[in-house]
Design brief:
Largest sheet: 6 strands, antiparallel
Structural class: alpha+beta
Helix content: 25-40%
Distance between the termini: 11 Å
Strand order of the largest sheet: 8-13-9-10-11-12
Oligomer: single chain
Order of helices and strands: EHEEEEEHEHEHEEEEHEEEEEHHEEH
C-alpha cells in the first residue's frame, strides 16, 4: 500500500464538503490523501467517486478511486451505502457505519449490559402506564426514538396538588392537565404518530440554579482503541431543563471542582472515563464499526452518574468557544488517526 492512504469523508450535502474538508485537513498530521464526497457522488458502475479535495492550496473537484477507508459524517439511519462501499473496499473499512442511533434499541443494549445500574428506567410510550410512572418518579421525560439536540423532548411533572405540567425546553409548563383531565389524551395529541419512549426523571444536580449535563466524547485512536478525548459540561439557560440548547459550555475540569471535593472529583472523572469507554464498546458490539460517539451523563443530587443517551454523530462545533480547552486537536485528529490505523489493518 502506498505511504499516503486515501481517505474519503462521507457527508450528506454537497455544500458541506468544503467546510468539512477544510476543518479536517487543518488537523491532519499524518499527511493523508483526503477528499470529501456525498452518497450521490458515487459512480457505482465505474467504481469511481466524484469528490472534492484541496491540493497545494487549490480546491479541486475530481474523480477518485474508491478510498482505503471511509469516515462517515453523513447523518444516517440506513447502512445500505456503507454496505455497498465495504463490498468494494473491505469489511469494517467504513467507520461510523450508522450514526443516527435508535434510542430505544440503545437503551435495551445498555440495560442488558454491565451498565444497567447507570441507565434510567425507560419504557415505550405505547406500553407505558403514565399515571403509574408519575406516581413513582414525579418527573418523567418523553423522547422520540430518533432525535437530536433535545428536539421534541417533553418534561412531564406531577405537582403536589395533583395537576400535571408538560414542558418543552423550558421548565415553565406549556400545558397544564388538571387532575380531572386525561393526561394520556393530551400526550396523544402532542406526540402524534411518532414513536416515543418514556424515561425516569433524574433529580439533576444544578450549578448556580441551572441544569447541566456532562458530555464525554469517545473516539478511537491510532492504535484502534477507544479513548476519551474530552469531557465537557453543558449548562442550560436559566429556567430551562434542555441542556442541548445550552447557554454555556465548559471543560468539566472547571465545573466539577466547584461542586465536589478533590477526591470526589477524581472519583467522578475516573467513573466517567470507565463508563464512557464501556458504553462505546457496547454500542459497537451491537451496531457494527464505530470510530466515535458521545455519551451524555446526568449527575443526580446524590452524586450518582446516569447515562442519559449516546450520540452517533457528536456535535463538534460546541467546543469552539472553549478558550481553556486543551484537547481541541484530538476531536478532529483522532478520526484521521483511526482511518490511518484501518488503512494498515
Amino acid at each position: 500500500m502506498e505511504n499516503r492512504p486515501l481517505v474519503g469523508i462521507l457527508v450528506s450535502k454537497k455544500n458541506n464538503r468544503k467546510s468539512v474538508l477544510k476543518l479536517y485537513q487543518r488537523y491532519d498530521h499524518l499527511n493523508l490523501k483526503l477528499f470529501v464526497f456525498t452518497p450521490a457522488d458515487i459512480i457505482w458502475e465505474k467504481q469511481r467517486i466524484n469528490g472534492l479535495s484541496k491540493i497545494k492550496g487549490v480546491w479541486k473537484q475530481g474523480s477518485f478511486a474508491f478510498p482505503h477507508v471511509v469516515y462517515n459524517r453523513c447523518f444516517n439511519k440506513e447502512t445500505k451505502t456503507i454496505q455497498r462501499l465495504e463490498k468494494v473496499i473491505g469489511s469494517n473499512k467504513c467507520f461510523n457505519n450508522i450514526n443516527f442511533f435508535n434510542k430505544w434499541d440503545l437503551y435495551n443494549f445498555l440495560k442488558q449490559s454491565v451498565l444497567n445500574p447507570y441507565v434510567p428506567d425507560t419504557v415505550l410510550y405505547d406500553q407505558a402506564n403514565v399515571s403509574a410512572l408519575l406516581e413513582k418518579y414525579h418527573v418523567i421525560y418523553f423522547k422520540p426514538d430518533y432525535g437530536c439536540k433535545g428536539k421534541s423532548v417533553y418534561r412531564v411533572e406531577r405537582t403536589n396538588d395533583g395537576d400535571v405540567n408538560i414542558s418543552l425546553h423550558a421548565l415553565a409548563p406549556r400545558y397544564i392537565c388538571r387532575k380531572n383531565e386525561s393526561i394520556e389524551e393530551k400526550l396523544d395529541e402532542l406526540l402524534g404518530s411518532e414513536k416515543y419512549m418514556v424515561q425516569q426523571g433524574v433529580c439533576i444536580q444544578q450549578i448556580n440554579q441551572r441544569y447541566f449535563d456532562i458530555r464525554a466524547l469517545v473516539q478511537k485512536d491510532i492504535l484502534g482503541e477507544w479513548k476519551v478525548s474530552t469531557i465537557a459540561c453543558r449548562v442550560a439557560y436559566e429556567h430551562y431543563f434542555n441542556t442541548s440548547m445550552c447557554e454555556f459550555i465548559f471543560d468539566a475540569a472547571e465545573i466539577l471542582p466547584l461542586l465536589f471535593s478533590e477526591d470526589n472529583t477524581d472519583e467522578i472523572f475516573h467513573s466517567l472515563h470507565e463508563l464512557s469507554i464501556t458504553a462505546a464498546q457496547e454500542a459497537e458490539a451491537h451496531m457494527g464499526s464505530l470510530g466515535e460517539l458521545s455519551v451524555d451523563f446526568a449527575l443526580d443530587e446524590q452524586s450518582k452518574l446516569w447515562i442519559i443517551e449516546l450520540n452517533g454523530k457528536p456535535q463538534k462545533d460546541i467546543y469552539k468557544d472553549l478558550k481553556s480547552f486543551k484537547n481541541k486537536n484530538l476531536i478532529f485528529s483522532r478520526p484521521l488517526e483511526y482511518a490511518y490505523y484501518l488503512s494498515h489493518s
